Amino acid sequence: MLMSAADYRESLRSYSPRVFVNGRRVESVADEPLLAPGIAGVGVTYDFAREPRHEALMTARQGTSGKIVNRMLHIDETSTDLLYKLEAVRLVCQESGCAQRYLTHDAFNGIFQATKRADDAHGTEYHQRFIAYMHEVQDKDLTLGVAMTDAKGDRSRRPGAQANPDVYVHIKERRPDGIVIRGTKAIVTGAPYMHEFLVMPCRTMTAEDSEFAVCCAVPVDAPGVTIIAKPAGRPGEAAAKFSAKYGQSVGVVMFDDVFVPWERVFLAGEHEEGGYLTTSYATHHRHSCIGARAGFGDLLIGAGALMVEANGLDPDRHGHIRDAMVDLIKIVEGFFACGVAASVYCIKDQAGSVMPDTVFSNIGKLLLATQIYDMHRLASYVSGGLVVALPGPDEDHNPETAGSLAAVLAGRADIPAAQRMEVARLMEDLTASHQGGWYSTISLHGGGSPEAMKREIWRNYPVMEKVDLVERLLDRGVVADGRRVSKQPGRCCATGCEVPSVPEAAE
Ligand SMILES: Cc1cc2nc3c(=O)[nH]c(=O)nc-3n(C[C@H](O)[C@H](O)[C@H](O)COP(=O)(O)OP(=O)(O)OC[C@H]3O[C@@H](n4cnc5c(N)ncnc54)[C@H](O)[C@@H]3O)c2cc1C
Questions:
Q1: Distance from the alpha carbon of residue 265 to the mean position of ligand 1, in angstroms
Q2: How far is the CA of 189 from the centre of ligand 1 (A)?
Q3: Which of 54, 300, 413, 447 would be a feasible disulfide site paired with 48, CB 3.0-4.6 Å?
């Protein structure tokens, strides 16, 4: 059953989460004005999946069940799946800025891979258990929040060495019928209006930290769960042309001795697979982030072009304006191309699914993480200062000022001042409001801070192949064929699958 946006909103009524926003308990998430833009954003993923023109992108056949499911809940099996997912995320983020739900997709794909590895290594039964759970979620067409980023406390200390163990979610107790978890996930997009949370570890763990290597599903209203969230977007602000309608809330989620039955536990102490889950989720998610920010880039490109037009300028005649627009396009399509490459060069996983290429996914996300600030700069550059100087919408109806403002704030003669002001307000909303800052920060840190991407690029890039290439070209004969071993961790050959034995000469 594919729900509509209205069905999704209604479905939230059957949950009673403990939610606080702006210091106040929220009685009904579905009716809370401060959360409405977030619910509308997620709603786009529902309505678009039911529209015939978006069906190919927004739905997919789930291989393990044969059923048609929302693309945001699908396990990728081919390069085409990845390309379609990338395009689908771009599509829903063009409309909504951020639609959150691709996080469910990314978590599903990461858990699908990690549970298979855990079963192969430990003889556990997580994979089939997870598939059964996933089918249930797909059948009900639910939206799951990703509860991965722990509060983390002192960053220089490992989870088990923290003064307060509750800064990381961990297993407090193991029972015959399940586990009890405790701790805090600090940044969860859409937390108040999710159906459930997927709890996952946010870093690689050592054996001593194994009780922190936990992955499980928890209903948003499970006893012991508290959500303390910010408003979604800029609800109720007349000047917020975009984010009064669409924008995501982010919440702190506290797990205060929450019982999770075994049917919903997908890792419980397998620290190596926990680490694998963190990185595989990150690769899927960074790939999705590329699509998401390309959708946001589309908004900036369109709004920038409209501002230029309303200002009376023609990019074909004014080279610096055209250059700025081309730079903006180059950035957006440049990182999007990394997403396309990551889809094309995907890797088949032992679980039967595919994973986008790690290097291209991380480069694409790294590019957007830093170039989002250039995107804002370029959009501002072509628009002018009016975007922050424009009087608020109340002035539009002030009989003492409206007429004279309209007369002087018009640009091109055939474009009414009201139209120019509308685009200027949209541009302010996207780039210069606190919501504009939200888009910058999510681009920089969402899916991991830039250092995490740099590590993944260095860990996975076959530098030694390039070294070999140059050595062959130089014909130096420094080492005999097959004797040279890469110094990059886990990277002994083109596919990086085995740790090499120490060559005799080095012993
Ligand atoms: C808007 C938004 C939405 C998000 N949504 C979600 C979500 O839905 N679910 C989710 O799980 N997460 C979400 N995230 C969290 C995101 O994954 C994290 O922000 C990111 O992983 C960085 O973690 P942090 O914010 O705790 O920053 P920190 O880890 O505190 O990092 C801050 C800086 O310190 C550096 N640093 C941190 N630790 C160390 C160390 N040990 N040694 C050296 N340097 C260090 C980092 O490289 C970084 O530069 C979201 C983030 C944002 C901004």
A1: 25
A2: 13
A3: 54
